[in-house]
Amino acid sequence: MCWFHWIAITSLIFSVALFSYQFARLVILGKPEDLSVSSGNVTKGVVYSFTKAMAPGAKESAYLHMPTYAGGIIYHLGTFLSLALFFVLIVGFPSFNNPLKFIFSVLLFISFFAGFAILIKRILNKDLKSLSGLDDYISNIITSLVQLMTAVYLLIPDAEIFYYLSVALFFIWLPLGKTKHLLYFFFARYHLGFFYGWRGTWPQKSE
Amino acid sequence: MDGGEPGLKNRNNMQKIDKVKRDRALELLKGGSDSKLLTHLNACVRCGLCAGSCMFYIAHKESKYIPAKKVDLVSSVYRRYCTTMGKIAPALVNAKELDDNMAEEMVDLLFGSCTMCGRCVKHCSIGVDIAYVVRKGREMLSAMDMVPASLQATVDSALRTGNNMAIPTEEFVDTIKWMEEELIDELGDKNARIPLDEPDKNVFYTLNPREPKFFPLSISAIAKIFYAAGENWTISSLFYDVTNYGYFNGNKEEATVIARNLYDEIHKLKGNVLVLGECGHGTRANRWEGPNYLRKSYDFDMTTAVELIVDYIRQGRIKLDNSLNQELVTIHDPCNLVRNGGLLDEIRFVVKSAANNFTEMNPHGNENYCCGGGGGMLAMSEYNDRRLKIGEIKANQIRATGAKVVITPCHNCVDQLSQLNHTYKLGIKIKTIAELVADALIIEK
To answer: Quick one: pLDDT at residue B32?
Structure first.
């Protein structure tokens, strides 16, 4: 292993350690304490929160904004693909054949452009711009960069150093910036399901 | 219609925040003991897709009304004072100081631009409980003595007199006696009653003070239902107020005192079931928040007027003839009873049982738009223009149904809808569930 491999691995350990701390803290704090009498079912509410309530047809944030929603989904899939490829590439197994590398690269170029489009929208749209700070731009750029560099590295092995450094940057920023929603998203859905499940809103009684 | 920054111009209790006040506010953000708070302060990605779900943004088309902006006011302060990155490099993670400007912006947006209806919550791409974060922000402002004066006056009235409209007990008792006489005349039964302060009754009923003050016929309507059901019930002449504006002003201590009024009174009168009158936030504050304010499970049953009427119909304790309500009716779903209270099906069951010509609004139920009067907006006259402006969405919804009658089991909503009816010339009647059911009752003698 070279020095840039170790930088990437060290960054990964940093990321995992911070996320583990945040995860443990949330788990230890436990579920919300509620002394009222429930009129619903929390388990069903949480399941609903992660399933039907997430369907594009159930959320205005999806069905009123289909291009952005689709771009976001592609972008997130690209991020997870990049993560998966990192683990495969760092251990050097298995060796990809050229067609597979090409397919992954194309997919990652597409997801990179989805992320780039979201960045451009944030810059040009006055509403989004008013909401945005450095974190929003840094998070997007770092995440998009890692997808781009993964795609490039698959096609051009000489880009290895730049690839691993971009991955290292990504891992360092992941638990610090708004990218930490990688963890908090799941807890947010849980708490929402708990809230609506407790009160009998999710799932609706007649469903 | 919106005349600029009403909250900032008219607030007369705005003071510069000092370190003591700021520390009190920041203490509320320490998420060390609250997984839910910690989660929602860290989950928003500021995608801005919640904008189209918020009445304030839809009506005004201004960036500041985007729900994510309201979350960011609170979470950026959290990041500044409660996270390592926020302390070391605040600019990198959008962390901000809690200074006078920030506090003023929080007052304007968290009190004056959010009804805490939770519509954005349901539609959030992540699942951030935006209304919960807004409420936390209100708690911070309350800790800094920055509650809008008009809202605080409503809470003070409840603390001082036992009801938020400061109705003297004699006046309340006179109104009840008057309604009892009306009931006797209507039913032709001199034994018909509206019992006051009677111990050992099954039902301990509560009212929104708007009822004795402005809508006394809704009291005789529920009394007529109790009469038909043969219910054993009473109202307290001292603590009958179902509302709790302490839920809105963010002061948990005050909310606890108000919730305890009902808790103690039902014990004093030895009632079995606390029945929450037709009030959305009153139901929420008592049923869902009350035991948490008082830090104990209640040792009596609690239900809403809507659910009680559902039981009466299902058990055959009252009989309804829905042909007695012929006009086309629609339902306005109170946010705190439906999206935040799970009573969507119950409300429809009662309305369909009592009226034979029914149509839904679009959207409705859990997707419903707030009337615009929630979150304490009706009490905050500083924001009247905004309140009526966002109410235009509801007015247009109602107009589109062609309904002549709007049913809503919430007196706050009744009040806002009445103002919308006048402002937007809707030409509708607004009724509570009890009023609709009372008109369909078959009284067997």
So the answer is: 64
Determine the average pLDDT of the residues in B189-211: 97
CA distance B111 to B124: 21
Query: Are A32 and A191 a contacting pair, CB within 8 Å?
Result: yes
- How far, in Å, CA of B32 to CA of B38, rounded? 8
The Cα–Cα gap between B423 and B393 comes to 13
How many Cα atoms are found within 13 Å in the side-chain-facing hemisphere of A184? 26
- In order of their start, the domains of chain B are 6-146 (1.10.1060.10), 152-314 (3.40.50), 322-440 (3.40.50)
ipTM score for this prediction: 0.95
B398: enclosing H helix or E strand: helix B384-401
Q: In what order do the strands lie in the sheet with B405-407?
A: B358-359, B329-331, B405-407, B429-431
The domain limits of chain A are 3-29+60-177
Q: Would you state the pLDDT for residue B31?
A: 59
Q: How many CB atoms lie within 10 A of CB B105?
A: 18
The closest CB to that of A29, out of B33, B47, B123, belongs to B33
Alpha-carbon distance B24 to B83, whole Å?
A: 17
Q: Cα dihedral angle (A74, A76, A78, A84), rounded to 10 degrees?
A: -150
Work out the pLDDT band at B9, boundaries 50, 70, 90.
very low
Instruction: Return the HEC string of B416-437.
Output: HHHHHHHHCCCCCEEECHHHHH
Between B364 and B445, residue with greater pLDDT: B364
Task: Give me the pLDDT at residue A207, please.
Answer: 66
Give yes or no for a contact between B172 and B237, defined as CB atoms under 8 angstroms apart.
Answer: yes
- In contact, A129 and A104? CB cutoff 8 Å: no
Question: How many residues belong to chain A?
Answer: 207
**Which of B35, B48, B50 minimises the CB distance to A32?**
B35
Distance from the Cα of B352 to chain A's closest Cα (Å) equals 15
State how far the Cα of A205 lies from the Cα of A197, in Å rounded to an integer.
10
- Locate B279 and state its tokens: 């009030």
CA distance A53 to A204: 11
Q: Output the six-digit token pair for A195.
A: 């809230």
Contact B95, B85 (CB under 8 A): yes
Asked if pLDDT for residue A25 goes beyond 80, the answer is yes
pLDDT of residue A94: 64
The distance from CA A166 to its chain's CA centroid, rounded to whole angstroms, is 16
d(CA B62, CA B51) in angstroms, rounded, equals 10
Which residue of chain B comes nearest to A31, CA vs CA?
B35
Q: Between B50, B92, B297, which is nearest A138 by CB?
A: B92
